[in-house]
Specification:
The chain has about 375 residues and is an alpha/beta fold. The protein is built from 13 helices and 19 strands. The chain is globular, with a radius of gyration of 28 Å. The N terminus is likely disordered.
Length: about 375
Amino acid sequence: MLLPATQRLRRPLRCLRAWGRPPSRSLMDLRELVSALNDFASLSLAESWDNVGLLVEPSPPHAVNTLFLTNDLTEEVMEEAVQKKADLILSYHPPIFTPLKRVTWKTWKERLVVRALENRIGIYSPHTAYDAIPHGVNNWLTKGLGACTSVPLRPSAAPSHPAEGTHRVEFCADNTEHLDTVLNKIKDIQEISCLTTLPARVEGEEQTRVSLNCSQKALLEVVALLSQNNLLYHKTEILLLQKPPLPHTGMGRLCTLSEPVPLSDIIARIKSHLKLPHVRLAMGTGKTLESPVKKAALCAGSGSSILKGTEADLYLTGEMSHHDVLDAVANGISVILCEHSNTERGFLSELRDVLATHLRNKINIIVSEKDRDPLQVT
């Protein structure tokens, strides 16, 4: 049967696209790859305001041969991704952040989505999840300081509580018959877990201690039930279950250098690490280029909210507000600003190698050559 002209053309085009690919190790299904990327850096570590994960998905099934890494997805970078036959773009910064009300050719971010779908290219963004992980952007940035130890400035908490529920309720009772009635009513409440009873001696009297875990919603019902009996209510303790901190995980880093280093040497190290001819420096009050730096607080990108109030000799970040710089300087803290994406982009080369191992070399991984900071010194 003779196919319509449009269908006859599609098949040769797909063949040509396949022929134009770089030599392939193998293919990964998009959903398998996204799952592996999520395992590499849990999206639960991202800031609540962020927009992370798979942002653009071609119609399934979609196989990935080439993963394309970039810090910012601009139209120039998108053209490069198309030319290099990318199947998935990992853009550190999410190109879709504020909601799109339409997808047309009118604005550059809408055009990115159009071009991605036309060329069957997915878009994935990890952003602040990569800031938080121990092997992420901020850890890479610490390497510009030289030998040092570091801890997160704002530690990340585990995604869930160590036990079910958000609260623990404990109370004692000495009336067994009445207690059985109360316990039966508690068991009828949804989202109750870990309900236990143990013998206890309170003020010389034999009593029963009741402990249970519950959700925020169930807590209201438990308290309402116990408040019907003043004796139980006054013996009730309510504990908020905290999510435990994750070791070496979180936003920003406070770095302690193995030995004090003159500020001028730190500047040279940072410029070398970031491959920058220039950085911006605000000297702390009373400090000189020869002043020793022992503690440095850093945050890739825009670090004001993370660095503010931290005691250190130096703040290192991409950008800070004018008034936050003034505050730091007044407190004797020097500030080095490198422009936002310059404190992030160099991580991509390291990421390429680490992801290759994590993905067991199943796919080709390439780094954009067109991605660059929009600001230049002239």
